[in-house]
Amino acid sequence: MRQDAETLDTYAWALSRLNRWEEAQTALQTAIAKGTRSAVIFYRLGLVEQHLGKAAQADGCFRQAMTIDPSFNQRDRQIWGLEEF
Asked: How far apart are CA 58 and CA 44, in angstroms?
């Protein structure tokens, strides 16, 4: 599997649909470690952290998503399919 941020994000999405939250977390953390500045990836990691019961980490990810893209809003989350994650 390719290890670029977009592929890892898609992989994390698939893992989350299978309730494999820890693996999804690892994939997204790997994408971030590679230097991605994607609000979507940080937001998705926040959702994963929520599912893992890590509220403080989730909040940090959500804040980072908004820092990267202050216009990242409800409509964007719906377009990216993040509401169901």
From this structure: 9
